[in-house]
Specification:
Length: about 300
């Protein structure tokens, strides 16, 4: 039987999304720890390094909330295979670039593609694994957070000291194509759900852009005021750009954007749970913006 006609293997699709979670976790951790080495190798100023980190992470806020809906509408193959291969190509090219505006563009695209790897993991686990294995799948999904957080420290040091800082990116050149192959073999070929596409809540998707504006504004104010300026809102700009308030404004914008309640809204969640999911990448942006800035102690703050 030709390879193209082989039936999909559901376990491969689960392996693909779990591998994507590990790729995203490791890259975020390695990039955050190794940013000083990257900044020195690329000849960037501290402020430029902070913006590079912000531009790399902020697009995930735009992409991540829509991934579950995109998988439901277009299928796992279309959502993961192409982005994984494009992500591998960008990971190969970024260490070879020294022009700062080009680096910003490439890191923005890189972050947007990376944001597609994690959100659909639990949905794929529940759809493709037997119920008796759900706990094991969830355990692996949760395990990657702590594992990448701790293992990333030693791995970053090994890359910087032994192989070169480029491997912070080049490790994904090897892993992302494997994820694409697993998704291709594990996910069935499905037709586009045009009914779901016609019922899409475009107002909610469009309102996500406001979260990007809020996150970038807070990041920029943090670069000017220091890390405490972000966390404690010591400047008026930080108070004006509060993301929690932005989320509440966006709920009203979503209701007004279409003039009537949307018939189909994905992902479905309680408002409080949704706030937690959306604030998590914003917290990463905050940490990235302030990570390379001198910490203001009590004396300096006074």
């Amino acid at each position: 039987m030709p390879a193209a006609e082989r039936p999909p293997v559901p376990a491969f699709s689960v392996a693909a999304v779990l591998l994507g979670c590990f790729i995203a976790g490791f890259h975020t951790r390695l990039f955050g720890i190794g940013l000083a080495d990257l900044r020195g190798a690329m000849g960037l100023e501290p402020d430029q390094g902070a913006w590079l980190s912000t531009v790399a992470l902020a697009p995930q806020i735009l992409v991540a909330p829509a991934i579950t809906w995109l998988v439901t509408c277009f299928g796992l193959r279309r959502v993961l295979v192409g982005p994984a291969l494009a992500y591998a190509l960008l990971s190969l090219l970024i260490p070879l670039v020294r022009d700062y505006p080009t680096l910003l563009v490439l890191h923005g695209l890189h972050g947007a593609l990376l944001g597609a790897f994690v959100p659909a993991a639990l949905m794929v686990i529940f759809r493709n694994m037997p119920q008796r294995l759900w706990i094991a799948g969830i355990a692996l999904y949760v395990f990657r957070a702590g594992f990448t957080l701790n293992a990333g420290i030693g791995l970053t040091g090994f890359y910087a000291a032994q192989l070169g800082w480029q491997w912070i990116y080049w490790q994904d050149v090897l892993l992302a194509p494997l994820m694409a192959w697993l998704a291709w073999r594990g996910a069935p070929r499905v037709a586009v759900d045009r009914v779901l596409l016609a019922q899409a809540d475009w107002g909610r998707h469009a309102a996500i852009r406001q979260r990007i504006d809020d996150a970038l504004c807070r990041a920029r104010s943090g670069q000017s005021a220091g890390l405490d300026g972000i966390r404690h809102h010591s400047r008026p700009a930080g108070r004006r750009c509060d993301v929690t308030g932005g989320l509440r404004r966006q709920r009203g914008a979503c209701a007004l954007s279409l003039g009537k309640p949307a018939r189909h809204r994905l992902p479905q969640h309680r408002p409080d749970a949704g706030d937690g999911v959306l604030l998590q990448p914003t917290q990463h942006v905050e940490r990235a913006a302030g990570a390379q800035l001198p910490h203001r102690g009590p004396a300096a703050a006074a």
